[in-house]
Each structure stands twice: as structure tokens, then as C-alpha cells.
Amino acid sequence: MGYYREGQKVKVAVTSIQRSTGAAWHGDVGEIVAKTGDGYRVRFGDGFVADTVKDHEIKEA
Length: 61
Prior knowledge:
This protein is mainly β. It has strands at residues 9-12, 16-19, 22-25, 29-35, 40-44, 49-53, 58-60. A five-stranded antiparallel sheet has the order 6-5-4-1-7, with no helix packed on it. The protein starts with 8 loop residues before the first strand and ends with a strand.
């Protein structure tokens, strides 16, 4: 963990990132807003913030 940094733009690398609060789809671009002990918090363009996003779920935009 730790490959990405806060403020970095990333894309969804997997088919989708789904959480109870929303979803982001392959190719959607978001911004890392925080690192957590379990992964990253990523805010996507529609306002959805995904918690516990892992390195394998995203790639550099």
C-alpha cells in the first residue's frame, strides 16, 4: 500500500467499484482524498466517495 498519494488523479481499473453509498465504473476518473490503513478514499466526479479502495482497483490517470 502507498503507491498513490493524496490529490492524485486515478482511474477505475477493474470493472466497477461498488459500495453501499454508490458506484464507479471502469474508466471513471477520481481523486484520492485520503490514505487509510486499509486503502484509499477516492472521490469521483459525481461526488461519490469510495472508501477502502485497493491498489489493484485503480490505476494512474
